[in-house]
């Protein structure tokens, strides 16, 4: 539980959380993009 408190309450924790969220969104977008491009003939 201390890890979550540090992640959401400290400045370096928030920056890490933002970086993790951005990477997750970009990888999801890239996966969907590649999947849709691969389905087109």
TrEMBL record:
Domain of life: Bacteria
Organism expressing this protein natively: Methylophilus aquaticus
Keywords: Membrane, Transmembrane, Transmembrane helix
InterPro entries registered for this protein in UniProt: DUF3149
Transmembrane helix in keyword set: yes
Residues annotated as transmembrane: 12-36
Protein name: DUF3149 domain-containing protein
